Structures are given as structure tokens and as C-alpha cells.
Amino acid sequence: MRDFENAAQNRKLTILINVRSILCFILLLSTLLYSGRAVYSVICLSVFVGVTLHHRIGIKSITIACVIILQIILQLLKCIVKNEDINSIFNILMIYIPIFVMLPKGGLLSGFESYKNIICIVSVQLNFLLLYQYVLFGYSRGRVDFLGSSINYLASINCIFLVFYLYCLSVKNKRGLILYLALGCTLLTIALSLSRVCILFAVLSVFLYCTFNLYRHDNRHKVKTLLKYILLVNIIIIALYFLYVQMYNSSFSFKESMDSFEYYFERIKMLGIGESRLVLWKNALKAIKENILFGVGNPQILDFMNAKAPAHNFILEILLISGVIGLGIYVWVFYKEIKILYDRTTSAQRFFIVALCINYWGINFLQPFISTGYFFNTLFGLMLTAISFKKNEGIKHV
After folding, report:
1. Which of 56, 123, 204, 218 makes a 20 to 30 Å CA pair with 157?
2. Which residue blocks in 170-303 are alpha helix, DSSP H?
3. Is the pLDDT of residue 172 over 60?
4. How many angstroms separate the CA atoms of 23 and 5, rounded?
5. Is the entire prediction scored with pTM above 0.85?
6. For the chain, what is the total number of helices (H) and then of strands (E)?
7. Which long-range contacts (CB under 8 A, 24 or more apart) does 87-91 make?
8. Average pLDDT of the residues in 275-299
9. Is the C-alpha dihedral spanning 315, 321, 327, 332 positive or negative?
């Protein structure tokens, strides 16, 4: 009788795991296909309603969700009173995507392994498609065809992939071929992107990871570990150098890519680093002053060529979307949710949660992906949830 009950319980658990996996894949697929704000918002709200009906949200998360709902109602009333575009509500939902993903108690999936496998597979596919595009058509800084966006966007995604993979490496008995393949593809994509911001944060992430592991080792193993890290870094640098030289000499498309890199650095000399962003930020501040309390509902403003573009700073973009009130709620909501994760995790997990947040908000201090990047926001929420699983599974870090 007991065996029958255990078998029934295992079948129920398997069905639940499959349903959650399908839901997680739908979220990732919808963001990967660059779905509209309305479609994605419906998906997020459906997740929220579904997990609420199944009592899988704690009281703290319910409070956070209610605050977000009140803000949306407030913004809706503003649109009605001022006769503004009601679609601006979807801009608010966009910035809360990570919270919708993190709200379910226990996450969208059953455990860390499910998250790791899905993230690794998606990462390998994304980066393989980019490398395949390079082989066929050469480097194009302006556009990654299958994402419909710039190489900066894919490089930024890979920066948070990188933090997650470094976390996986720090966990005992959880490494595998797919993890090393995903990590290698991630590092290669960041290197080929030549994104100044992303390369800076990638180097910072690796440095913090090495420092953290050295600090946790006893004195007897510190020198050995340090020498291992120095050797690995040198191997990566030498491998990239020979790869660049070989491809430059044998591939016309790659040679064109390197020539475009040269043009890019020439452009920096002419315009100056950050000159275009300063214009965006000044125009954003002017627009914010029009309605400093509730914002103007749209993160797009005029750039130095008088074309519409996001402000390329997540603080300014949130101020544009929902004003000082919206920014205050955004800060409070993320503080509360991350504090919940922080309180239930170990010191090792907390280190990587902080590193992930540094990459997410640090990159978006100069990039526009929090207000435009469906996929970027979803991955951030999924990875935060995945990292918080470890304490419950009792898996030790090296």
C-alpha cells in the first residue's frame, strides 16, 4: 500500500515538474522571439495568477505583488485623466519581469538541476547561432539576426550567463560537459562582441570569482589555486589570440569583421567615449521634468541624430516610464524580494546573488535592456531563483 502511495506521489511530482518545465520554456521562447509587450505581460500575469491559485506565494511576496498592482492602477488612472497612451502600462510590467519570475514559492521549476540544464541549453543555442551567423555573413555590430538586436544585447545576456556558470563551477559534483561547453561559448561571444561595457563586467566577474575562491581556501591551497587561475587565464588569452590570427588569415568574413572593429575604434576617437549617451541623458532629464512624479510613460527620447532611442540608463528609463513614485516602488520591490532570497541562502550563494545584481544593474546603467530586454529580464529572475535553491538541496560548495 505504501509503495502504491509513493508511486502515485512520484507520478504527481513528475507531472508537476513537466508542467513547470513547459512553462519555463514558454517564458524563454517568448522572450527569445522578441514578443510584444502585451503578449509577454499576459504570460507574466498568467504565471502570477496560476501560482497564486495554487497557494505557492508567501505572504511577503503577496505584499510585493499588491504594491506592483497598486502602481499599475495608479498609472492607469493617470493615463485616463491625462488622455495618454494606455499601452504605456506594458512598459511598467516590462521592468517587473524578474519579480514575476521570482514570486512563486520554490520557483517555476522543481530544483537547481532543471534551471541549470535549461539555461545551459538555451545559452549554447544562442551563441552557436551567433557564431554560425559570423561564419556565413561576417561580423555585424548593428544586428544579431535571430534576436533582432545588437551584439551588445547578446553580450549583456552572456555576462549574466557567465556569473551563473561561475556559480555552477563553485558547486561540488555539479559540473558536466554541457556546463563547460556553455561557459566556453559565453566567453567567446563576449570576446567577439568587443562591447566595452560587457568585457569590463566579464573581467570583473572572473576577478571576483577568483578572489572569492582564494579567500575561502586555506593558506596551504591558496598558492596552488592562484597558479591554476593564472595558468587558465593565460591559456584563454593565448587561445583567443591564435584563433583571431587564424580566422583573420583564412576567413574573408572574419577579416571584414576585424576591419569593422577598426572602424568602430576610429569612431570612438572622433566622437569620444560616451558622447552620444550624454546627449541621451540630457534629453531624458528634460523629458522627466515634464512630469517628475508619474513620468511620461515611455523610455524613448531623442538621440544626437534626432531619432527615437531609449535613455541607455535604467534609472532614467524608469523615471521616464513612471516618475519618482515609480522609481521608489521599483527600488523597494527589488530590495524586498532580493532580501528574501538573501535571508534564506548561504554566504557562497549571497556572493553570487550580489555578483549577478552588479552585472544586471551595472550593465544597464549604460545600456537600455531593463526597459526593452524581455529575454534579459527573464533570465535574471530565473538565475536568481536558481542560485537560491542550493541551501535546500544541501549541496556543498568547493
Report:
1. 56
2. 177-193, 196-216, 219-250, 252-271, 275-290
3. yes
4. 27
5. no
6. 17, 2
7. 87/37, 87/38, 88/297, 88/298, 88/321, 90/37, 90/38, 90/41, 91/37, 91/297, 91/298, 91/299, 91/321, 91/322, 91/371
8. 83
9. negative
